[in-house]
Amino acid sequence: MNERVAIVGYKQTKHTVDSPVARERMIYELVKSLYHDMGITKDDIDTFVLASNDFTDGRTISEVFMVPRIGAYMKDETKVEADGLNAALYAYLRILSGLYNTALVIGFSMAGSEFRVPLTQAYTMDPAYERPRGLINFYSTAALQAGAYMKKYRFSDEDLAQLTLKNIRNANNNPFAARKEPDASVDTILGSRPLYLPLRQAHVSTYADGACAVVLSSKKTAKKFTDKPVWIDGVGHVMDTYYVGDRDLLAMNHLTAAAKKAYKMAGIKNPKKEIDLAEIHTNFASEEPVLAEAMGLFKPGSGKDVVKNGESAITGALPVNPSGGPLGANPINATGLIRLAEASAQLRKEAGQNQIKGAKTAVVHAQDGPGAQLNTVFIVRR
Predict the structure, then answer these.
(1) Residue 60 has what DSSP assignment?
(2) Cα(286)–Cα(161) distance, rounded to whole angstroms?
(3) For residues 147 and 46, what is the distance between their CA atoms, to the nearest angstrom?
(4) Are 228 and 359 spatial neighbours (Cβ–Cβ below 8 Å)?
(5) Its pTM surpasses 0.90
(6) Is residue 180 part of a domain?
(7) Burial level of 220, CB count in 10 A (0-12/13-18/19+)?
């Protein structure tokens, strides 16, 4: 494949648990300011891809009132009913088709103030087998996965608390994060409200109101928009079986397959040595070692040592979620796209206090479904 696609612009809101403005105003202001920063207009965008969800928006055709707010009225626009990184994948493929040179991707949610996330998630469960019993849901699935990992690899509650604290501290330095806990400690995390043990409230990502917008461009037009393009050099996208009970929540073979696709496309043979940072979509802190190991970033079962040695910290050998990740802000539908924006900021040396020195290659991950049922992986480079 000779054609390349670049990230030429990005912007996200300052996420909050209770936005002072409606989603329409939030998205309008975000996209307007992005256009202004890039020195472009809506006419410079060939296709628009929105990531929204009818359940989370509380209305059918959930993007309909957003189309004029982003400048897509009477223009080519479409929607992905999943995480924003999947929308970016769709936009990427559209550009590779040769029919479009530019695309605006936007994901948004009012998960902090307008709906109860676990209740909404329950409607995605199987209506005959899982939903009526109420035993299997996103939280309990994550707890089963966490328990299996902790038991197999002797990963203690204290180890999980240290891992959580790492991400909270990163979020404290991220101006876009909704979660700010300067007094957080291992003790406060271990003392937080138990949910499905071993998971506690402190381990859960911060559901927030927010949005993220990213502009993609073909190689031939990228220089028109920026002298600091971030290239998408590899992608992978794999979905596991529908039923939770039929899946190996610890092996995560489908995520491994998605990562391998992306690595092969980008020419990466040793991800631990060739990747400078990872932005991973973790709905729960306990998912970080499971997902990172499935992606080949660390050895299987090494989570305890990674935490102890600080390998995934900002100053470590392979920083994971230097932005704080979803524990800092999880505006559903935008979360994976935010990972792409945060990785782009790192590669363009625009990550502020959380900047990783010398970062040139990053892996970006997004998930959907209970226990990371669907996974999308990007490799991006400067």
Answers:
(1) S
(2) 9
(3) 47
(4) no
(5) yes
(6) no
(7) exposed
